[in-house]
Amino acid sequence: MAEDFQWDTSDGRPELALITNHGYAGVQIPVGGAADTGGQNFYVNSLAVALERLGYRVTIVARGGFPFFESERMRQGQELLSDYVRYLYVPGGGGEFIRKEDIAITLDEEVEWLDDWIRAEAKTRGCEPWEVFEIVNTHYWDAAVMGMRLVERWRADRAMVLLQELLEGVVPDEALARVRADRHYSGLGESMPYVAGRLLVDATGNAVGLPADRAREAFAAWAKARAISESDAGEVGDRVEELTASLSPALGLVGAAKVLGTAVLSAWDPVGERVEAAFGVVDRHVWTPHSLGALKEENFRDKEPDVVRPLKFCERRAHERAVCHATGLFAATSEEIAERLHTQFDVPVESMFYFPPCVDRELFRPHSDEELVPVYDYLSEKSGVSVDKLKSGKIVFETSRMDRTKRKDLLLAAFARVAAQVDDCYLFIGGGPESSPLFAELKKQQEADPLLKARACLLAFIPEEHLAPLFSMADVFASASEMEGFGMSACQAAGCGVAVVLSDLIPFGVQYAADAAILFEAGDESALAAGIVDLLTDDDGRRTRAMKLAEITRGLDWEAVSRDFLDYLRRAGLEVAPGKES
User: Fold this and answer.
1) 224-263 pLDDT, tens digit each
2) How many CB atoms lie within 10 A of CB 21?
């Protein structure tokens, strides 16, 4: 941990922020071992390094305040991923890990802490909080809520400046001071017209009388104090008369204050230039969902309530809808996500950039025999099978977080069929921790079948140094997952030149590799087994598919797509400074 390192910004590199909040996001990713930790974390870390290569300095924000996976070391302070990429661990929600479906309880504390931290950074640099980062790119819905709330707070700051200019000298200073103190809790950035009208009514109108009469009187007092020309005041005053006359009595002073505030703003800023300019500069939020509750819920519509209930789809969809309505720019990692953003959440197509997971070619590539020596030793130690037998046999591999939606149980059942037909084949499944109830169930399933006990191995957490070589050494990568935003592990296997068997709910296989992968209907054990057998018994066919998959992934280059992403944001109106060449 490098909590006290100095983040030297004197080199002039523009700064970007990525927020990936849940799970064990960090410099070391316990892929396949830690809950809620996997493909998205690879995506964010790889994106950050690609942006670094393009000349940026990147801060990755993740939840902290609790220990790292299988460690007593606390997630706190800051930690360097590379020379110009750091992790910032944000406390909130207590000192324990919280699964992503329950993470909403942490967000208020995290947003307040992060906003305070950004403000301190801004003060040190002599800039506004929203000027610290060129963009704030959030990943998954919980991080998106944080990004949305930061923008709300910064809008409230700008709204307060506008109110001060609009009402100073008319509304008492102490009344404005009260609004300033409560601006982050009152939704000032979204309710400025109402707040302005209510302050004016309370300061300049009679305390009694009909709300409409009080609003008209307050407008006249403001127009006089601001020396608004008689013609302009008359025109806007007529509008106040018209709107207040049609107010429902049930709305009372709320409706009258909103009408009054809107009228005052239109007189002060006739075409909305001041307000647009003030609010436009603070919104630098771009959301990358990675998956959507609307898609996942559909995949689980035939499941039993006790399976669906813990996933909290209703709550998740509500959060996602709120984010979509409050956010202007998006990055979709799959065509399905882009479609649902557009059709269910009314996100304009032009507001989305297509940014699928790419492949880190320094990691996920074919490995030499020499590089694979320690991996064979590792697998032999874990399985009890000799290195020679592993080398002469065929290896099927899967890794993902330990979650029922990954259907590792189905993969084990299918492999029992495979092992009965194909000699000297072995299955290795990554994912943990070993203390989880699901791991215990899978272990029991494996030990109950003599073939599985002899030829299948649950690896639990895979050390990072073995992960990419393990992908490379496999003959087949197989996934029965029923809940994937993209299928990054499948894409990484393809980048290593490995043939894949995938469920038809994994977007990578369906959208990119339908002709190269073997796809089966999710939940179909016999089809999964048949696909694995086909690849294990047809060496030429397996190699042909693997070569096609490797070619497909060559177009998924992190640095090239990251550059296109930043160019898209500039075309969309964000002023993203060019990276500084090293």
Assistant:
1) 887 776 666 666 666 666 666 665 555 577 888 888 898 8
2) 27
Per-residue pLDDT, averaged over 453-469, amounts to 92
Q: Tokens 């490379």 label which residue?
A: 472
Question: Which of these, 223, 205, 211, 221, lies nearest to 257 by C-alpha position?
Answer: 211
- Cα 125 to Cα 132: distance, rounded to the nearest angstrom: 8
- Please report which helix (H) or strand (E) contains residue 217, including its range: helix 211-225
Long-range CB pairs of 161-169 (<8 Å, 24+ gap) are 161/278, 162/192, 162/274, 162/275, 162/278, 163/188, 163/192, 163/195, 163/196, 163/199, 166/196, 166/264, 166/265, 166/268, 167/196, 167/199, 167/200, 167/203, 167/222, 169/225
Identity of the amino acid at 582: S
- The domains of the chain, with CATH numbers, are 14-134 (3.40.50.2000), 165-262 (no CATH), 292-358+557-574 (no CATH), 369-556 (3.40.50.2000)
Which 3 state secondary structure label does DSSP give 57?
strand
CA dist 125 and 295 (Å) reads 43
Distance CA 341, CA 32 (A): 29
Task: Tell me what the pLDDT averaged over the chain comes to.
Answer: 91
Q: What angle do CA 115, 22, 122 make, to 5 degrees?
A: 20
Q: Does the CA dihedral 385-388-393-395 come out positive or negative?
A: positive
| Average pLDDT for 297-318 | 89
Structure tokens at 191: 């309710």
